[in-house]
């Protein structure tokens, strides 16, 4: 490793005049990369989805397909970077080692014996400093923004899983700090890179369904609310519970909070945003991209009576966006749970459709992998426009290329930060139980003071940023 690191330092010190070098012109401090030089990548959170991201960045022959199916990757999609550091609060191990979404962290930690191992990302960044070029964050939601923002302020490029935040304030900070530090960023909404999304954009932008006035999204199924457990079992050996909590208020360990222990942290406000926080960014990504959405002016939400600590199994959220260039004022709705939104209930939509764009001339049903125009009789002889949006080189490959060359990514934080911000604001409206008027420039709710207490969360001492 020392020999490899010395070579990297030498190449960077040689300067941009050396033949075959690429300069990252957008970064805070321009760095030179040899044409075939690998990035030095640190990974924070290496179990579950973290194991998949790790495999893709390390160059394993896997990629993510629509529906989160793991498929073989082409040679062009395999990045093969240098994993120099791995950080996870859970160092338990098992006998299995195949990379997939359900592997516990210990499997991934064992795969890269030369990488430095840490439990605390703050110590990792302070200790390794310039030895790290880029950081991948695949932790529970409550660590997304603290780890990503800390890494960016260390001058590191960042790939972060969705939703990237656990509050409206954190989502805005992601975008602001990325712009300030001028680092390459990518958000973990992997389906943004699919050709199907590009065909959907071409249909909408060609005027196939006229002026789009609304988009409705439905995630079938939910997950029940429950009270905080009262049992206090011992913390499993290998899990650092205090570091798992990170910035959130202390609570005793219980397996219901930890996926590796059979629980689900996403169901608790301290750790995540429920079904909406988990999947909202994936589905909103397409609507924001296709309709040039950014900040809503109002939002209201409806569901079961809010629980002070646990997320709801059913939720309906409605946003209003102002007119934008060629687009009229637009309504965006989210629904999860078994009760279908009105437009789905009134029409015979196929089960594969999770979204519908409603325009003045028709409707466009969408999913990760397909689309369909309605009414069918009107579009029986419809010919879609010729493809004109270039294919992605690969979701993770976009980020690696941006780190090395300063090129753009499809899901940079400047685009995806507002997507996450909208999701977090919807949860605020639900928890307050009021329709909110939103002043995006001031990052404040103007009509309901109670809501502003939830726009930004409190942090335990030592975890502020």
Explained architecture:
There is one protein chain. The chain folds into two domains: 2-192 and 394-413, Rossmann fold; 195-224 and 272-389 and 420-455, Dihydrodipicolinate Reductase, domain 2. Helix 5 (141-153) runs parallel beside helix 6 (168-181) and helix 6 packs antiparallel against helix 12. The protein is α/β, with parallel strands linked by helices. Helix 5 (141-153) links the parallel strand 8 (134-137) and strand 9. 30% of the residues lie in helices and 18% in strands. Mean pLDDT is 88; it is low at 1-30 and 95-99. It has a nine-stranded mixed sheet. It has a six-stranded parallel sheet with strand order 7-6-3-8-9-10, with helices on both faces. A two-stranded antiparallel ribbon has the order 1-2. It is globular. It is built from 13 helices and 19 strands.
Structure summarized in a few sentences:
This protein is α/β, with parallel strands linked by helices and 465 residues long. It is built from 13 helices and 19 strands.
Lay out the secondary structure:
Elements: H1 2-13, E1 21-23, E2 32-34, E3 40-44, H2 49-58, E4 63-65, E5 69-71, E6 82-87, H3 105-111, E7 116-118, H4 121-128, E8 134-137, H5 141-153, E9 157-160, H6 168-181, E10 185-187, H7 195-205, E11 212-219, H8 241-245, H9 274-291, E12 298-302, E13 315-321, E14 330-336, H10 342-346, E15 355-359, E16 362-366, E17 371-374, H11 395-405, H12 413-432, E18 436-439, E19 444-445, H13 449-455
């Amino acid at each position: 490793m020392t020999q490899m690191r010395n070579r990297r330092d030498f190449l960077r010190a040689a300067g941009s005049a050396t033949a075959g070098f690429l300069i990252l012109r957008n970064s805070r401090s321009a760095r030179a990369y040899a044409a075939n030089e690998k990035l030095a990548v640190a990974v924070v959170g290496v179990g579950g989805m973290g194991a998949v991201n790790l495999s893709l960045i390390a160059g394993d022959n896997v990629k993510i397909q629509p529906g989160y199916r793991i498929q073989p990757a082409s040679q062009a999609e395999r990045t093969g970077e240098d994993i120099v550091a791995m950080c996870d609060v859970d160092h338990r191990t098992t006998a299995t080692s195949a990379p997939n979404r359900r592997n516990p962290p210990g499997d991934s930690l064992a795969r890269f014996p030369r990488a430095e191992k840490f439990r605390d990302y703050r110590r990792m960044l302070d200790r390794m400093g310039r030895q790290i070029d880029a950081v991948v964050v695949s932790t529970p939601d409550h660590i997304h923004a603290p780890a990503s923002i800390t890494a960016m302020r260390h001058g590191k490029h960042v790939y972060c899983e969705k939703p990237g935040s656990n509050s409206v304030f954190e989502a805005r900070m992601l975008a602001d700090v990325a712009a300030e530090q001028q680092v390459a960023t990518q958000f973990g909404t992997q389906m943004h890179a699919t050709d199907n999304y590009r065909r959907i954009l071409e249909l909408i932008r060609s005027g196939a369904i006229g002026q789009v006035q609304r988009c409705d999204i439905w995630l079938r199924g939910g997950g029940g609310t429950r009270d905080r457990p009262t049992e206090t079992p011992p913390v499993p050996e290998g899990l650092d519970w205090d570091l798992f909590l990170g910035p959130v208020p202390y609570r005793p360990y219980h397996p219901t909070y930890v996926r590796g222990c059979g629980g689900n942290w996403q169901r608790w406000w301290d750790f995540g945003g429920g079904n909406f926080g988990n999947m909202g960014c994936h589905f909103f990504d397409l609507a924001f991209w296709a309709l040039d959405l950014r900040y809503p002016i109002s939002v209201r939400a409806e569901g079961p009576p809010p629980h002070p600590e646990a997320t709801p199994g059913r939720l309906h959220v409605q946003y209003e966006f102002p007119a934008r260039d060629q687009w009229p004022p637009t309504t965006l709705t989210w629904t999860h749970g078994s009760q279908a939104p009105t437009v789905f209930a009134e029409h015979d939509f196929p089960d594969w459709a999770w979204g519908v764009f409603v325009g003045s001339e028709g409707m466009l049903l969408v999913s990760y992998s397909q689309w369909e125009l309605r009414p069918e009789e009107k579009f029986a002889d419809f010919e879609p426009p010729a493809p004109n949006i270039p294919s992605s080189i690969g979701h993770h490959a976009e980020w690696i290329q941006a780190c090395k060359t300063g090129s753009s990514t499809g899901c940079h934080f400047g685009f995806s930060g507002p997507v996450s911000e909208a999701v977090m604001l919807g949860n605020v409206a639900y928890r307050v139980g009021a329709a909110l008027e939103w002043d995006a420039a001031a990052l404040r709710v103007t009509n309901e003071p109670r809501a502003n207490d939830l726009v930004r969360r409190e942090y335990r001492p030592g975890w502020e940023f």
